[in-house]
Write a structure and sequence with these properties.
The chain is built from six helices and four strands, in the order βαβααβαβαα. The chain has 115 residues and is of the alpha/beta class. The protein has a single domain, classed as Rossmann fold, CATH 3.40.50. It has a four-stranded parallel beta sheet, sandwiched between helices.
Length: 115
């Protein structure tokens, strides 16, 4: 099984400018999967660090052909970006399993699943 953990393209954040922190939650999850799930091939795609825009992300999804795409939504300001990323993954391959998590999604899980 191929799992792609994505930190999506983001604009500059007014508090930190272009210096956004690395996606630590995704890196930790990748390390866990590598250690405890030997049948899982995992990759972290940090679009900001790699300079990928939305089209670049779409091309990577087409090339990598993951079975699972996971995107972290650490705060509410990322909700639209996370939703857009998951939608893009489904447009590339409707059979991709999409997963999200983080504070925003944990706090509003029932409302979000209703959308």
């Amino acid at each position: 099984m191929r799992v792609l953990l994505i930190e999506p393209p983001k604009e500059y954040w007014f508090l930190m400018g272009e210096h956004l922190p690395p996606p630590l939650a995704l890196l930790q999850l990748a390390a866990y999967l590598e250690a405890y799930s030997p049948d899982v091939e995992v990759e972290v795609l940090d679009c900001r660090a790699m300079g990928l825009d939305w089209r670049g992300l779409e091309r990577r999804l087409e090339t990598l052909q993951p079975d699972v795409v996971a995107v972290s939504g650490s705060c509410t300001r990322d909700a639209y970006i996370v939703s857009w990323t998951l939608k893009l993954a489904k447009e590339v391959d409707p059979d991709i399993y999409t997963i999200t998590g983080g504070q925003h999604y944990s706090a509003l899980a029932e409302e979000i699943m209703g959308e």
